[in-house]
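Researcher: Structure for this, please.
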Amino acid sequence: MTDQAATLRVIQGDSTRKSSGTVPRRAIAVSGGKGGVGKSTVALNLAIAYSQLGARTLMVDTDPGMADLNLLLGVAPDKSLLDALSGTPIDDVLITAHGIALLPALNGSYLLSTIGPSAQRRVIDLVGSLAERFDTLIVDVAAGIGQAQTTFAGATSDAIVVVNPEPLSMADAYACLKTLATQQDVRHAYVLPNRVTSRSQASELTARLAALVARFLELEITPLPPIPADPQVAEAAQYGVPLMIHAPDCPAARAIRQLPRVLSSLAPQTGASWWRAARAQGDSR
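Model: Predicted structure, token format:
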């Protein structure tokens, strides 16, 4: 069993310890409600942006059965989270590419796609065992609002919900925020407009979502600077090279690059920890 305090530090973040670069320790979950909103692309390139600032960055793929971070990174892991859960040493599972470490999932794994509370607690322990080796944790959360997704999305000190101008994206982003607020006791989340064609479109998007949240939920949301629609995103995915490496000066990459500094300038928020959520589930059974 890993040290509980270490697990709590990596999940909630430790504002008293500075990173090896210029940003404080941070634990961020990137979610989006529905698939196809660009969640994994944002999460991966945000991780690389933190790494480029000097932060030792760990990325965890919690889309266990439909993993695609390895494809976006252009790597083919020999082992996955399933091996780690089965007892393989964590250092034999982690892979490093483009300056970040990845705890990969496994595409097409039914076992991983249906992990329950017990396996989720094992994931907590695995990540907790790495707490002292990394400054920044980025968690890529699977699409949907199932128990596993909402547990992971509500786990970290910062939750980012990605939304784009499609009507279904708006509805599903609200559903994601509602579930975080009602099931995980999250009281603050960031909203990140993605693939927008103008700042006015982004402002309209976040304003509509904020109005819904203010009316129906006990939740505060903070809009983040938008990421513009950019053809380089699809091209980078096609080549299996992260956008921040493939086209570092394109508009979308520049927008993502500023996110760590924006987040650092905002007051840290405290959400439900993975440790508390997992323990509560275990106590209730």
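Researcher: Any notable elements?
Model: Residues 23-258 form a domain with the Rossmann fold fold (CATH 3.40.50.300). The CA atoms of residues 4 and 188 lie 24 Å apart.
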